[in-house]
Structures are given as structure tokens and as C-alpha cells.
Amino acid sequence: MARPVSNPPNPWSTVHVEWLGEPPAAALEVFEEEAKSVLTRNESPDLSFRWSVNPYRGCFHGCAYCYARRSHQYLGFGAGTDFERKLVVKTNAPEALRRELGKPSWAGELILFSGDTDCYQPLEAGYGLTRRCLEVALERRNPVGVITKNELVRRDADLLARLAAEAGARVFLSIPFRDDALARLVEPQASPPSRRFEALRALAEAGVPVGVSLAPTIPGLNDADIPEVLARARAAGARWAFHNLVRLSGEVLPVFVERLRAALPDRADKVLAAIREARGGDKMSESAFGARMRGTGARWQMAAQLFRLHRRRLGYEDGR
């Protein structure tokens, strides 16, 4: 049972942080819980990993398109502002992970941080749960993958480099946009793309194998950004790259549409039409396995070809 806390660990007292623009108007509520398990098994054939760890539920980054919004409803919260303002912290995540990795049945498979919400969202600066979980993985010599939109991952460059050398680790920075101002409209509290490129470079220089995720590709909004994002990421040291089509299933769709119209009223209709075109012309999302992450229309084929062309030209490695 999650319980509210009045004063969670204060990230401002442990690291240097400054607002890029106006502070958010959202009133943050933090809930703490002790999880029975932190290893989540993923059955979807669309995903490249089987096991993930999510120390936090909900995400302060507030990305309008985030597919994880739907899972917040399982807690009795909403998929809109609740997802960004009512955050749940699994305070015993490192201890639970140590227990699970110590079971004789555990086969030492790769664990992804995180398969759902961002493991380096701002609360991590105070709680440090992701770092402590990574320390557990290092103790057990268990390979890990990390994907994040937050430059806070730079804090753990030393630990991730040791993991890479002793067990296996890769870190992907999710950078769907090339422009800080446009990204701020769609990913309001995530680190600006320019800071994410800097984090990518810092990790690579520390010896951490890194890649870039251009997910999601949103036709009419950021598909034209593909060449520049791939080039800047490669220059920063990225070795792998992947992308997929935006997923707007269930309650995610009205959140995305509302925020798109508020942020980009002159472009919203064109973007929505482009997404429908990438889904074959008559829908905004696809639920079938194998088709959820990619489109079928000419618009998507153009974006996918653009991605493949520049990934090959820049010398990215195959795989993730």
C-alpha cells in the first residue's frame, strides 16, 4: 500500500539543479511503498528485453506521448496530470532486487532500467534508488541496460563504466527532438536535448557503451529531426540507434491531443493527420503485437528509410 510522505528526500540539497525556464505549476505529491518484487517480466514480442526494474511509478518529465500513462490508472490515479504529479517511490527497490537476484532460479539475464517510467527522473537525485539498484547488479555481476531522458545519469558514469567492464552495460539517451524549445513543449520537465547530448558524451568518455533512442518518432513533428539527432549523437559517442512510431493507445491519445493543441495550435491538425497517415490513414494507434511500434503508410516508410540511410551513413553498429 502506497503511503503519502510530506517531505521526501530533497534533490536540491544533494546536487546542483536549476530550472530551465519557469518552475512547473504542478503540485507534486509523493507516495512511498515497499514492493514485494521489483523485477517485471515483459512478454511483448515488440520489446528487446524480458526483465525490467522500475523504482518509480509515474514520471515528473510529463511527456505528452508517454505510453506508461495508462499503467498509472492501476493505482487508482489518472493518466493525465496525476501521472506527473502523484509519484510513487519503491523505497525498498535495492533490497528487493538483491533478494531476487540471489534466488537459485535467477539466470543472470539482462535487466533494463526502466521498462516503464524514467529511472532517472528528478526524484532519483534525492532517493538514489536507481544507483543503489545498479550497485546490486554490480555485486551480482548482472548485465543491465538503461534508457533515460534525464542528464542525471551522468552522476553514475563511474558505476556504469564498472558495470560495463565487469558485467555488461549499455545506456541509451532518449532524444526524439533536436531543438530544445520544441522538446520543452512536448517533454516539459525532461532535460533539454542539448543537455542529453552532453550526458551522452560524458558517459562515452567515461567508458560506458552508449546509444541513442529517437523514440517516439511523431510524423509531422520530429521525423525531419532524424538526420541531425543521429549525427549529433554519433559525434557524442553513440554506437547504436533505434526509433519507433509514437503509440497513442487508450487514455494516452486525449492527453496527447489536448497538449499538442495547446502547445502548437497552428501545427496540431497537420501532425494528427500525419500520424493517421503513418498508421494507414484511418487510425491513431495500433494494438496488435508486431505492428504497435511501426507504421504501414508511405509517411512512415519515408521516416524509416531516412533513419536507416543516416544510421548506415554515420557508421552505427547493428542491434541495440
Which tags fit this structure?
320 residues, alpha/beta, pyruvate-formate lyase- activating enzyme, 4-stranded mixed sheet, 11 helices, 11 strands, 34% helix, 13% strand
Topology of this structure?
Layout: E1 3-5, E2 29-33, E3 39-41, E4 51-53, E5 56-57, H1 81-85, E6 86-90, H2 93-101, E7 111-113, H3 124-127, H4 129-139, E8 144-148, H5 157-166, E9 169-174, H6 180-186, H7 193-205, E10 210-213, H8 226-235, E11 240-242, H9 252-263, H10 268-278, H11 298-314
Parallel strand pairs: 2-6, 4-7, 7-8, 8-9, 9-10, 10-11
Antiparallel strand pairs: 1-2, 3-4, 5-6
Order of strands across the main sheet: 3-4-7-8-9-10-11
Number of strands: 11
Give the N-terminus to C-terminus distance in angstroms: 36 Å
Strand content: 5-15%
Number of domains: 1
Q: What structural class do the secondary elements suggest?
A: alpha/beta
Largest sheet: 7 strands, mixed
- CATH architectural group: Alpha-Beta Horseshoe
Give the integer mean of the pLDDT values: 90
What is the N-to-C order of secondary-structure elements (H for helix, E for strand)? EEEEEHEHEHHEHEHHEHEHHH
> What name does CATH use for the topology?
pyruvate-formate lyase- activating enzyme
Name the helicity range: 25-40%
